[in-house]
From TrEMBL:
Location relative to the cell: Cytoplasm
Family: Belongs to the PanB family.
Protein name per UniProt: 3-methyl-2-oxobutanoate hydroxymethyltransferase
Positions annotated to bind 3-methyl-2-oxobutanoate: D55, S56, D94, K123
Major enzyme class: transferase
Binding site for Mg(2+): D55, D94, E125
Cofactor: Mg(2+)
Biological function: Catalyzes the reversible reaction in which hydroxymethyl group from 5,10-methylenetetrahydrofolate is transferred onto alpha-ketoisovalerate to form ketopantoate.
Keyword terms of this UniProt record: Cytoplasm, Magnesium, Metal-binding, Methyltransferase, Pantothenate biosynthesis, Transferase
The gene coding this protein: panB
Organism: Luteibacter yeojuensis
Active-site residues (renumbered): E192
Superkingdom classification of source: Bacteria
A GO CC term assigned to this protein in UniProt: cytoplasm
Length: 275
């Protein structure tokens, strides 16, 4: 059966400099994950600012227990699929586990995600030695989204999916890492599962936008795994998420409600944050 495709109203494309302007103007950035063209089109129609092809696909699409098995080939495949569903939403793609083991490897993976996948930005977890990778990518005009706090690729070192930065020492280390990734050339920073007060402090100290997931309402924007916010992920929903499909009659209505709640600072609430 042929189904006529509907297109979203034309809007100005979201750009990397545009995200920084949104921070300066106090406008919240709305980000969601997507893994295929159909979901990407839903994000586009709902006016989501940034689509993230996360290596979370290993868990929510492939049914694995972590993000670690996801390959560069898989990330390129899913990124290209999402790109076909977008027109103005900015596309970000994860560098998967160990693709950032050195600068040449990260450069090759990032180049594929941009050239073959259509990504406008790549996301990379961690600081320390990763700052060298961020600097190398930035020098070659590949925009970078850094990712600090609970970094899922470090799950074995953390001993599970745990809130980060809870002690004074850990908080100061995370604050220093945030400043370091900005100095290295990152254009965006995801803060995952960190105390809301610490995320607010980092957000105020940086000139680049911060995107929170379990990091409180004071970040410059928010991101969720789309399957989590639709109540589709099997098992217990993460504390920092919310079922936006409940009480609504369509996926697009749910995504639209999420976008509106982020922009109006109604989400996340205290119950979705950590202290």
């Amino acid at each position: 059966m042929y189904v006529e495709k509907t297109s979203a109203p034309a809007r100005k494309p979201v750009t990397v400099p545009g995200l920084k302007a949104m921070k300066a103007e106090g406008r919240k950035i709305v980000m969601l994950t997507a893994y295929d063209a159909s979901f990407a089109a839903q994000l586009e129609s709902a006016g989501v600012d940034v689509a993230l092809v996360g290596d979370s696909l290993g868990m929510v699409v492939q049914g694995r227990t972590s993000t670690l098995p996801v390959t560069v080939d898989e990330m390129v495949y899913h990124t290209a699929a999402v790109a076909r569903g977008l027109s103005s939403t900015l596309l970000v793609a994860d560098l998967p586990f160990m693709s950032d083991r050195d600068v040449p490897s990260a450069m090759e993976a990032a180049a594929r995600l941009v050239a073959q996948g259509g990504a406008a930005m790549v996301k990379i977890e961690g600081a320390g030695r990763i700052c060298e990778v961020i600097a190398a990518l930035a020098e070659r005009d590949i925009p970078v989204c850094a990712h600090l706090g609970l970094t899922p690729q470090s799950v074995n070192r953390f001993g599970g999916y745990k809130v980060q930065g809870k002690t004074e020492e850990a908080a100061e280390r995370l604050f220093a890492e945030a400043k370091a990734v900005e100095a290295a050339g990152a254009d965006l920073l995801v803060l995952e599962c960190v105390p809301a007060a610490l995320a607010a402090r980092i957000t105020a100290a940086l000139s680049i936008p911060t995107i929170g997931i379990g990091a409180g309402v004071d970040c410059d924007g928010q991101v969720l795994v789309v399957y989590d916010m639709l109540g589709l992920t099997p098992g217990k929903r993460p504390r920092f998420s919310k079922d936006f499909l409940s009480g609504r009659d369509s996926i697009q209505a749910a995504i639209g409600a999420y976008a509106e709640d982020v922009r109006e600072k109604r989400f996340p609430g205290i119950e979705h944050s950590f202290t």
